[in-house]
Amino acid sequence: MGTAKLVAKGTVDKEQEKMRKKTQDMILHNVKGERYQALPDAGMPKAALLAKLRDESAQETKWRKGQVSGTVYHGGEEATEVVVEAFRAFAVSNPLHPDVFPFVRKMEAEVVQMCCAMFHGGPDTCGTMTSGGTESIIMAVKTYRDWARAERGVTEPELVRCKSAHAAFDKACHYLGVRLVEADFDPETFRMDVPHVRRLVNRNTICIAASALTYPQGVMDDIPALAALAKTARCGLHVDNCLGSLLLPFLPAAGFPLPPFDFAVPGVTSLSADTHKYGFAPKGSSVVLYASREASARPRPRGGRCGWGVRAEVRGVTGPGRGRGRSCGSTSTLWRQTGQAGSTRRRLSRAAARAR
Ligand SMILES: Cc1ncc(COP(=O)(O)O)c(C=O)c1O
Predict the structure, then answer these.
(1) pLDDT tens, 79-95?
(2) 125-156 pLDDT, tens per residue?
(3) What pLDDT does 20 receive?
(4) Which atom of ligand 1 is nearest to the CA of 277?
(5) Alpha-carbon torsion (123, 129, 130, 131), positive or negative
(6) What ranges do the domains of the chain cover?
(7) Does 262 sit in the ligand 1 pocket, CB within 6 Å?
């Protein structure tokens, strides 16, 4: 290695070490007090435990002052009260078992249905609730991989996403054995470079991933152009609306005209929207929607397995998303809010108006 390269490497190593230490300090040393490495010998009385949790939570003030962006999305005190109350009602629940929790199934189905309508889905549009944007994206990529294998015989699947797209696509491709192909963005607008995407698409492409909005710049890719391209290439077009979530549909009414970005655009085949962002549900809530049942049925994300030798396993076939047990507290808060005489609609309209 040449001297200049050695010097550069030394500088990079030093900077990396500095960053590593800074990150470690930020994560580990910000929390004072006792550290538990194992179950303590003596438990804490309930009152003391709850007081401690309240005290610690009260010290986490940054988000209350509005000093964090992209971390917490909250709809104000009134909404938080509803969230807490609704969460309490369904803290003990499990949508994996609709026979035991029929109302939970109803809530999930209605949240999905409301989202299908909000994003201009047709009679065939369908979807599932998941634990967050990353899971929604993983499920969509799995759908495209399995669909392309079955319908087009694609055995070496590729997905085209922009450099500005969220890392969830990288995770999805990594987990699912899909080759990630990176498209440039326009240096002026930060939107996905459509001519570049056109050059990258080939017969192995299962999906183009577009953003509405991108996480780093908050811009919307040219969805109509990308959807038309996907249609010609016979691949899917996923719209990552995890960030825009339930806010985007309300922007036009607040005086911000938007280009079409959802199922109103022919060629948009799936869309993710995080109900735990501008839907104000607590973390652990998102939806993934598919334009048609035909594609979404392919991966059977609700898949279960028979043959455990016990009767209960057949319930697995009704599991949401990756199909696992979880609490439905988050869904109940969302459903409750949407059911509050349009309170979510009003809150979202107000949030959209405040953005002016
Ligand atoms: C555009 C976009 N996509 C996907 C995600 C992933 O969502 P989550 O953190 O809920 O997994 C985010 C999160 O901020 C996002 O902004």
Answers:
(1) 889 899 999 999 999 98
(2) 999 999 999 999 999 999 999 999 999 999 99
(3) 92
(4) 10
(5) positive
(6) 89-302+316-354
(7) no
The reply to whether ligand 1 has any atom less than 6 angstroms from the CB of 138 is no
Where does the chain show beta strands of DSSP type E? 126-130, 158-162, 179-183, 205-211, 236-241, 270-273, 286-290
- 315 pLDDT above the threshold of 70: no
Q: Atom 7 of ligand 1 has which residue's CA nearest to it?
A: 133
Domain 89-302+316-354 coded CATH 3.40.640.10: yes
- Residue 151, phi-psi category: left (phi > 0), alpha (psi -120 to 50), beta (remainder): alpha
**What is the per-residue pLDDT for 328?**
63
Residue 31 is encoded by which pair of tokens? 């929390």
Could you tell which of 243, 278, 285 is best to mutate to test the pocket of ligand 1, judged by most ligand atoms within 8 Å of the CB? 243
Q: How far is the CA of 325 from the centre of ligand 1 (A)?
A: 22
CA distance 257 to 242: 19
